[in-house]
């Protein structure tokens, strides 16, 4: 019997309040408002409101459901912050968090100027194949997807080693990767070529002739230099864009509907 216990626990921001069948945030709920059920598997949830972690619901063991699996506390904080910030704009409607479309569950979903947008916050356990599959699913649903990652201080360095999903996003969004900074502030980053300097050296061959090598710059296959563009507002600085399937080197990007910034190239 394959039962998922507290190891690899699945946590979520929202649950279904049993008494009126409404989706509610953990942060706005109290235990006496319960019981609460999972929006996916319908099993009972436990409300947790501590002082350290973002308020959340957790499955009452034993359970099989994978909803919310692999999300960090920072991931959940990002979702709630984006949701709360978008709710302040009148041109943003149908706002929902952990919106279930069957084939995919959007971290945040809404209509922005009547354009359907799914906002997905990248998790470290998501593979490129999973990201590609989700992007294709959104295309079939007619939803524009914006993949975000959490901003990290290494993006301020000259030498940066990209992960596979960053290479995929870079290809999908025409040379940009989007990082969430706070609220609706998004940092677009282009990864430019990085050159390693090959130190010059000299030596003598067996015949006594002097040999030399190095003393030049060589493009790195592994590293890139982050180039930060102007900060963006998620609610106002993006447009829907239809993109055909394409293979660039080893990176395949499917036919998709993406949410793309309005900036001209800054690199």
Structure, explained:
The structure is a single chain. The chain is mainly β and 267 residues long. Helix content is 14%, strand content 43%. The strands form five sheets. Strands 7, 8, 9, 10, 11, 12, 13, 16 and 17 form a nine-stranded mixed β-sheet that branches. The termini are far apart. Residues 1-7 have low confidence and may be disordered.
Helix content: 10-25%
Number of helices: 3
- For the record, the count of structural domains works out to 2
Beta-strand percentage range:
35-45%
**Biggest sheet architecture:** 9 strands, mixed
SS-based structural class? mainly beta
User: Could you state the order of secondary-structure elements as H and E?
Assistant: EEEEEEHEEEHEEHEEEEEEEEEE
Which blocks of ≥5 consecutive residues have pLDDT under 50?
Answer: 1-7
**How many extended strands?**
21
General shape:
elongated
- Roughly what is the average pLDDT, rounded to an integer? 88
Q: Tell me the radius of gyration.
A: 23 Å
CA distance, first residue to last residue: 55 Å
């Amino acid at each position: 019997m394959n039962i998922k216990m507290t190891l690899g626990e699945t946590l979520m921001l929202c649950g279904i309040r049993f008494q009126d069948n409404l989706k509610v945030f953990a942060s706005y709920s109290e235990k006496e408002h319960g019981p609460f059920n999972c929006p996916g598997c319908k099993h009972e949830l436990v409300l947790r409101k501590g002082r350290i972690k973002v308020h959340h619901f957790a499955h009452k063991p034993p359970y099989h459901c994978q909803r919310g699996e692999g999300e960090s506390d920072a991931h959940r904080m990002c979702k709630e912050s984006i949701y709360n910030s978008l709710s302040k704009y009148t041109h943003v409607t149908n706002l929902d968090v952990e919106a279930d479309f069957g084939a995919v569950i959007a971290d945040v979903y809404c209509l922005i100027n009547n354009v359907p947008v799914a906002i997905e916050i990248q998790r470290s356990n998501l593979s490129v194949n999973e990201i590609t599959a989700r992007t294709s699913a959104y295309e079939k649903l007619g939803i524009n997807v914006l993949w975000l990652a959490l901003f990290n201080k290494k993006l301020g360095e000259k030498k940066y080693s990209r992960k596979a999903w960053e290479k995929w996003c870079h290809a999908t969004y025409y040379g940009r990767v989007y990082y969430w900074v706070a609220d609706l502030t998004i940092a677009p980053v282009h990864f430019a070529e990085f050159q390693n300097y090959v130190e010059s050296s000299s030596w003598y061959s067996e015949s006594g002739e002097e040999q030399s090598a190095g003393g030049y710059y060589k493009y790195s296959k592994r590293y890139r230099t982050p180039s930060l563009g102007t900060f963006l507002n998620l609610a106002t600085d993006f447009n829907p864009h239809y993109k055909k399937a394409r293979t660039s080197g080893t990176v395949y990007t499917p036919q998709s509907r993406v949410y793309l910034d309005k900036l001209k190239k800054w690199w």
